[in-house]
TrEMBL record:
Residues 49-186 form the GAF domain. It comes from Microscilla marina ATCC 23134. InterPro entries: GAF, GAF-like_dom_sf. It holds the Pfam family GAF_2. Keywords: Coiled coil. Signal peptide: none annotated. The lineage of its organism: Bacteria, Pseudomonadati, Bacteroidota, Cytophagia, Cytophagales. Residues 198-298 form a coiled coil. This is GAF domain protein. It comes from the Bacteria.
Amino acid sequence: MKQDNLNISYEEFVQLKQKFEEKEKKIEAQLWVDSTLNKFDELLRVNYAKSLEEFSQIVIQHIAELTNAFSGIMYTLDKENKVFKASAGYAIEIDKLEKRVFKEGEGAVGQAVASAKTLLFENIPADSVEVYFGSAKVNVANIRVIPLVFNEIVFGALELVYITNVSEVYARLLEKISRSIATMIESILNNDFNQKLLVDSQEQTDLLRAQEEELRQNLEEIAATQDLMNKQQKELEQKEMDMSETLKKIAKEKQDIEENEKKMKDTVEKYQQDIKRYQEKDKVIEQLKAELATYRKAKSTTPKPEKI
């Protein structure tokens, strides 16, 4: 026998509806993160051939505007000196920074690099850090220092300042974006290194064959990386299709719930109408009872006729 869908309590219905709404919000948030990552990867690919400084400036500006950061600095790895230099800034002139270079383990940037983990500074005292607008000054809510890690190697770090708290969705997005940035920095550094080798090879004929072989290997790695990125792109498209189907199913389930809710509402209204009719009948019965009592009282006080 088919079970009646209305055979649930109102509390159970509310809980079920709340679960579906929470599930829908999570899926929408994940879709937004995946879509934003896809667009960001396209931005990285478009600017792949630029210099490290130009690339860094485009990236830090995009991330700061995307996550509503007040200011930001991007640090990149200097392989030769084994330090991390400020290569670009947002709402900051890096040339005027008191300190632009950090070693591993030095300061917040160096510590984030050493641990390969994001450092989050919250609940900053009001008199410790202030930022200035043209007409006012405000206190900093939190500062994030995010290492840029790829293949267990740190290629840089992001230092982002916020005057409001960062949502969980933005925090998750920043962690994923950091890996994409690190991948591109590694490629740019490798390309810069290869370019230097090519210049040196023109002056050192004896090293030409070795440099050509190394360049060929690097090109193969780039091709393999491109194949991997194409594969990831296809997987992402399939994932988006799957999520789209899931959203359709959720929408159908939501429609069913709304229909059930309407049926329940109609049922409740019918019950209320029945109760109203019963109440009216109760009033009539009470009135009849009152009339009967009056009649009985009048009857009992009427004098009986005398017997002759």
